[in-house]
Amino acid sequence: MQKERPEAYTSLADWFEKLNDDCGYEEWSQYLYHRLSALLPLGAKGIDIGCGSGYFTRTLKRAGYAMTGMDVSLPMLQKAEQLSQKERIPYLQADVTSFRLPEKMDFAVAINDCMNYVKKEKALSAFKRVFASLKKGGYFLFDISSENKLRRKVGGQLSVDDREDVTYLSVNTLEQDTVTMDVTLFVKQKNGYFSRFDERHLLYIYTEEEILSALSQAGFAVLDVCGHLGEEKATSDRLEFLCQK
Prior knowledge:
Blueprint: H1 16-19, H2 25-37, E1 45-49, H3 55-63, E2 66-71, H4 74-83, E3 91-93, E4 105-110, H5 123-133, E5 134-145, H6 147-154, E6 158-162, E7 166-175, E8 178-188, E9 194-204, H7 208-218, E10 221-227, E11 238-244
Parallel strand pairs: 1-2, 1-4, 2-3, 4-5
Antiparallel strand pairs: 5-11, 6-7, 7-8, 8-9, 10-11
Helix pairs in contact: 2-3, 5-7
């Protein structure tokens, strides 16, 4: 039996953006802006679902959209608020499978694997809640890590990122349609010693067909499916979906 570990992003919140600095945040955020600006005018209201520490929330707010961030992780939201004091972005702690907003939005985004954290039996509930949060004609742009990536590049692998002030280790176990990531951080303290922190991430593997079926049942019209940053989906590690209410 696996030992209990704290929930995902308990300790990782403070280090998430730094440890992901090789994911191409700037190019990714510019791509999102160009996709959205082709659909919506500046000033449109958007919700960033699974916003984490708020990188994309901040960049879209700076670009001219009226953004709200939402995440289930309180530590991530606390980090997001710390990093976006100049932007004055409102943040909500809520679960994508059950959230309700006080007003409907022009668009929603869920970037960088947010939907892979949703249990498969709750995917339809999540899409229905997003659908309900949008105005008629509103857009939903989100991505998932592909089945090939999670089964062959993440599951069954060991991930290591060793920095001067932090070391990240992730032991990734594949079992059927789930990847369990047992993450350990060693964080350097002021006295030069390192403190250890552990947490567990569960990622659920979806096929394109499963996502399309759930979106259709939720009421969405799917406008486009492509790979990361517009790549060919057959060879991409991510699938990106553009939908409309």
